[in-house]
Every structure is written in structure tokens, then in C-alpha cells.
Amino acid sequence: MITVENLEVAYGQSVVIPDISFSAEKGEILGIVGRNGMGKTTLFRALIGMIPAKSGEITVDGKKITKQPSFKRVANGVAFVPQGRMIFPYLSVYENLISGVRGRPNRTDVEEIYALFPVLQEMRNRKGGNLSGGQQQQLAIGRALMTKPSVLLLDEPTEGIQPSIIKDISRSLREIRDLKKLTIVVSEQVLSFVLDTCDSLTVIDKGKLTRRDRREDVDADKIKAMLAV
Ligand SMILES: Nc1ncnc2c1ncn2[C@@H]1O[C@H](COP(=O)(O)OP(=O)(O)OP(=O)(O)O)[C@@H](O)[C@H]1O
Which residue's CA is the closest to the ligand 1 atom numbered 29? Predict the structure, then answer.
């Protein structure tokens, strides 16, 4: 479970997130939708510790992680799949998968990822840079899962990915959630993906969360209108 209370994030004097609070339960997939530049990436960077929080508190499974460096947050169960995927293009699929693991990688862990994403097993010796966008996204998710997180953060995972693969990614995320009872927080501009994938949805606008709905209560037209403004 992740709880964010009154988080404020700024680049120098420029406050991008004035005050955000939300929580996501174990086994819940929360979608954060918002247009370009509304603060999704900034929020995730603050959650994983790439940017310091100016104030507020981030708690994961009861542990306060707000002041921790990124590697400690990962050790405490947070994993991040960044926008653009950021896989290592010159490392093989296998080397990418184990790149975030401390010490010797566990074979069963790698096999579990291959079971989730069979294409990664087929391509295990290929260079990451030679994979398609969708395959790279699967690799980035697999790499994040290798650290055995309890909270998985994904920043715009559908960016640059073709529609049929977007459906696969949605299915995989739900499968991972069911299998591992993870908390998943995913930011998106694509509403249909969020409606397919998430249990609840919140809208980010100029660094503020403006509404939150359970998926079954979402007024898609209203949200689309907010995203189109
Ligand atoms: N390094 C930075 N220094 C100063 N301002 C920044 C920096 N990075 C982002 N911003 C500003 O913060 C605001 C939020 O940007 P952010 O990248 O978090 O938005 P986003 O919702 O993720 O959008 P996108 O879909 O384009 O990634 C924007 O106004 C952006 O110009």
C-alpha cells in the first residue's frame, strides 16, 4: 500500500505539485490521468526519490520513505517504470532484467518474468535496443518486477505503443496484480487504457488531483472533456 500526504514538489522556485494526497491499497490499480505537463512525471519522480519532496509524507506498507534515497525506496518495495522505458539498449534482454538486482539473480525470479512475458524469453539474448516499443515496455516492467516490489509505479506506459500491444500490457498488469497482490499506480493520457486496466481513477490538473472515481462510477465523457481542455 502507498499513502501520499500533502506532497509538495518543486524545481527550484517553480512549484509543480503544490499539494497532493492519495492512497492506493494492496491489490489496487490506481490510474492518474492528465494532459501533457500536468505533473505526472514530476509526481512519480518524487515518489521514487529522483526529486526531493519539498514537504509532505510518502508511506509504503507503513514505512515512511519520504527522505530515503531511491535505492532504499526500492529496497522498501517501490519499483518504477519510467516514461520512455529507459531500458539499456546495448545490454541483452537478460542483462536488462537482472540490472536492478543486488547480488546474484535468482533463476526462478527470471523464469517467473519469462512466464509473464514469453517474448522476453524468446529474445533473451537480443540487445534491448533491437526490441519493438511494446517489447521494451514488457522488458521495463519485467525489470521492475525483478526487485520484488509491493508498489509498482508506471509513467505513461502506452506512449508510442501500438493498440494491440496496449491491450496486452493492460492484461499483464492485471495478471501481475492478481498474482502478487501488488499496488499499482499508473499515469496516463490515454483514458481507454485506464478504463481497461484500473480499479479507480484520479485526474491530475496543474499538479492537483481534481477528482477520484471507482472505475464503475467513471463518467468517461466528463473525464474526456477535462483531458481535451
Ligand atoms: N526539470 C524541470 N525543471 C523545471 N520545470 C520542469 C522540469 N521538468 C518538468 N517541469 C515542468 O513541470 C510541469 C510538469 O511536467 P511533467 O513532466 O511532470 O508533466 P507530465 O504530466 O508528466 O507531462 P508529459 O505527459 O509531457 O510527461 C511542466 O510545466 C514542466 O514544464
Answer: 37
